[in-house]
Write a structure and sequence with these properties.
alpha/beta; Metallo-beta-lactamase, Chain A; 7-stranded mixed β-sheet; two-stranded antiparallel ribbon; globular
Length: 132
């Protein structure tokens, strides 16, 4: 399954992105060769899996609860077993989206780890500080 996958050069880790969904969101694949994470999987887990290729997915990071950032998270989690990481504030709306609010309407997805401002998320040899 072909997909448009773009690379960002000149960084200390490999960053690729796809523009996906009705709102043309960026879905990021970040890897240091030891670990790989997908950030904001908006839709089409199949396209994201195709872009990952043989790489093992170590984490799914959701920056917030809007459907256009979480739409493929549950399916991606199911397909790979990768844990879903989200803020403690957004986790309830990711796990139980609110149909009354279009921005948080979406597919329910379990959150495996909640984080808060100042926490550090480690994936492979990468350390990412959470900024709320």
């Amino acid at each position: 399954m072909a997909t448009d996958l773009y690379e960002i050069s000149g960084l200390c880790v490999d960053v690729e992105y796809m523009i996906m969904g009705v709102l043309a969101n960026n879905v990021y694949i970040v890897s240091d060769g030891e670990g790989t994470m997908v950030v904001d999987p908006s839709c089409s887990a199949d396209k994201i899996l195709a872009a990952l290729g043989e790489r093992k997915l170590d984490a799914i990071v959701l920056t917030h609860s809007h459907f256009d950032h979480t739409g493929a998270a549950a399916e991606l989690r199911e397909a790979t077993g990768a844990p879903v990481i989200a803020s403690a504030i957004d986790a309830p709306l990711i796990e139980e989206p609110c149909d009354e609010d279009l921005s948080t309407r979406g597919v329910p997805c379990p959150v495996d780890r909640t984080v808060a401002h100042g926490d550090v998320v480690e994936v492979g040899n990468m350390k990412w500080k959470v900024i709320a």
